[in-house]
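To illustrate this point, what follows is a protein record of this kind.

___
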Amino acid sequence: MIKMYTLIATVLLFFLGCTKKDMKYSVGQEWKYKTRPTEEKSTLKILKIEEYPATGKVIHISVSGLKMKNPSSPTGFSENLSHIPISEEALNKSVTKLQNHTRKMPDSLETDGYSYWKREFDKGDAGVFTIPVSEIVGSMENAIISGNFSK
């Protein structure tokens, strides 16, 4: 019985010793965030979390439930962004509520987006977003409409 109490106390001390920041994000979480006005049901999913010396923590997310104008789409809109590398600080300013936590692995579109980004990042040709998710969505929409993907 004493061993059981010791185990419980150890587990509790471990979790109490972890800060909220240490435990906030994990792969598979789905979050509500501060969306654009027409996308209140949009959510983001945590795909991968990495730490880099120059940029700090990079959190890779996908966003669904969007209504981005896209002249190339049959409906005229895109509903998803499959891969966005974002700083932890920018994500902190965006998320509002943990919606769901699943263990679902990223799909191939999400992993392809990550693989492309990682290759370019390692060459010094890609970076990490440091603006809120809603601003990223707006910037991506503008790039799609204008055809200018260099920004």
Observations:
- The radius of gyration is 18 Å.
- Residues 29-145 form one domain.
- The beta strands are 29-33, 43-52, 56-69, 77-87, 95-101.
